[in-house]
Amino acid sequence: MSASQQSQTPLWTTEEPQNHPDSPLSRAFAQPLMLGLFLPLQTGGWSQSTLPRGTDWTFEYNARLTQQAENLGFDVAFGLSQWLPKGGFGGETGYRENFLDPFVSAVALASVTRRILLMGTIHILYGPWHPMHLARFLATADHISGGRFGANIVTGYAENEPRMFGMTRAEHDLRYAQSSEFTQICNALWSGVDNLTYQGQFYALENAYVSPRPRYGRPVLATASGSPAGFDYASRYSDIVFVSSPAGEKLADALPKLPAHVATVKEAAAARGRQVRVIINPTIIVRPTREEAYAYYQSIMDHADLGAIRNFSSRHAAGDSQSWLEHSARGRAVGGHLHIVGSPEEVAEQLRQLHASGIDGIQITFYDYEPELAYFGESVIPLLEQIGLRHPVVPLD
């Protein structure tokens, strides 16, 4: 079948992986509360603090973490994408100076894992990216991983990042319009349109074709946003929507506002006959007792890398992101959109409250990843199973 499309004519949609009962995405969606791991692929991970820890940006370290999370039954793992100058955000830690590419890393992780869903974060509007590239690359990664691969598609809010590519930042909503056309073209190619000819507002193709097809219709698609334009894009194209807290990092402040925040994107998707799952990023600090957990929490903040935090805050303020607007500077020493702190029982209860607000999954960051992930698996996951937020997962051999 050949096709000639004009920009005013919608391109084909393709079968969604969540409509395949045997897909890795359907397996993840069967969990009442999805568990994700936000990988520390960059210097300092997610926390701007000088308190000693073992967290490391290297691939070997992140591969161990991903395997550890997979064996604990985690559903998904992916990393952040940023483009930074020499020294990253500076400070005492050189925060995020070293930065493994999350797309390439996720493909590599497919070779050392068997069950966990892997996502590659991509700024699709930077540089020479074209829908043909992404359609083929993702289809290839889909086959390499056995259908366990997806893309976390971001448009880029920072003013300085596009200049690294010789570009200027487009207006906020126009970026989502371009991303929409980009994704529509990918869907057309994944759906099996032969020799696609298309002339749009942003992209042109002539006799374009991509094969093989992804195993479950198309790769998994995620997006991160807090704006109306971003939520509209997510409601059309994404399976997973990553939101920030609308009220800062304190859970007590966020809980009253999250239901309406989450409902906005879910209702927009439902109006289009689709379902999306909404996830959020908490940093979890769990210790045997509440007192131990809060002492550790305070120690992380007492060792805040103030220089890195100042540079991070200035960069964010210069962008046009509509996320992180209410977060405190000192809270960035800990990182995460929310801070969940306490004993195992208290952490499980806070996650229950978060789920009751409409959140379908958590993409967790830790301060010292390996030991804290292990303790979370040992102490919290069994409690989540007891209260019905997790179905038991058989450990891998």
Keywords:
alpha/beta; TIM Barrel; 8-stranded parallel beta barrel; 13 strands; globular
Give a brief rundown of this model.
The protein contains 14 helices and 13 strands. With 397 residues, the protein is an alpha/beta fold.
Could you explain how this protein is built, in words?
- The protein is of the alpha/beta class and 397 residues long.
- The protein has a single domain (3-386), classed as Alpha-Beta Barrel (TIM Barrel), CATH 3.20.20.
- It is 38% helix and 16% strand.
- It has helices spanning 24-29, 59-71, 102-110, 131-145, 161-164, 172-190, 228-237, 251-254, 258-270, 290-302, 306-318, 344-356, 369-379, 381-386, and strands at residues 3-6, 34-39, 76-79, 117-123, 149-154, 196-199, 204-208, 220-224, 240-243, 277-280, 282-286, 338-342, 361-364.
- Strands 2-3-4-5-8-9-10-13 form an 8-stranded parallel barrel, surrounded by 5 helices.
- α2 (59-71) runs parallel beside α13 (369-379), α6 packs parallel to α7 and α7 packs across α9.
- The longest helix has 19 residues, at 172-190.
- Mean pLDDT is 92; it is low at 1-9.
Total domain modules: 1
Name the CATH superfamily classification: Luciferase-like domain
Instruction: Figure out the total of helices.
Output: 14
Structural class: alpha/beta
Q: If you compute it from the alpha carbons, what radius of gyration comes out, rounded to the nearest whole angstrom?
A: 20 Å
Mean pLDDT: 92
Enzyme class: oxidoreductase
EC number: 1.-.-.-
InterPro entries: Luciferase-like_dom (IPR011251), Luciferase-like_sf (IPR036661), SsuD_RutA_monooxygenase (IPR050172)
GO molecular function: oxidoreductase activity
